[in-house]
Amino acid sequence: MSDNDSRNGVLEIIESFVDKIQQIRMLLVGISISALILAPFAIGMSAYLITHEQFYFILDEYDEFGTFLSALLATVIVISIVWLMLGMRQYIMLKSWNERYAKYIKRKEEIDEKISSQFKLDEDD
């Protein structure tokens, strides 16, 4: 196998890898958007329960259940905040990826056109 064949093989592998990542990008965008929607919803619901007038009654009246409920709500809030931050980070990374991928495709097409015009590959014989 010559250097040119191995170089072409590596380029094909890289391009197939980039294409696969581009295919799963939509799934990742969906996950990011769900984090951006559901995490604030969970935080809001937890905050509503904590500020509800009956919450402190439950804490006083039902010791063990009140402790469990407090721990559960605190856990929901912490996990939701982490989920929200990860969702924002993932969305920003995907947006950056999309911009770089568009530049890659544009640059690849320009190089392909340049090579085909230089070697007159686009002409029919």
Structural commentary:
Helix content is 91%, strand content 0%. Helix 1 runs antiparallel to helix 3. With 125 residues, the protein is mostly helical. The longest helix is centred in the C-terminal third of the chain and has 56 residues.
Question: Between the first and last Cα atoms, what is the distance in angstroms?
Answer: 30 Å
- SSE series: HHH
Number of helices: 3
Radius of gyration: 26 Å
The helical percent reads over 70%
Structural class: mainly alpha
State the total count of DSSP E strands: 0
Stretches where pLDDT falls below 50 for ≥5 residues? none
Major β-sheet annotation: none
Overall form = rod-shaped
Mean pLDDT: 83
How much of the polypeptide forms β-strand, as a percent range? under 5%
Properties at a glance:
3 helices; 125 residues; single chain; mainly alpha; 0% strand
Please sum up the structure shown:
The protein is mainly alpha-helical. The protein is built from three helices and no strands.
Summarize the SSE layout with pairings:
Elements: H1 3-51, H2 53-61, H3 63-118
Helix pairs in contact: 1-3, 2-3
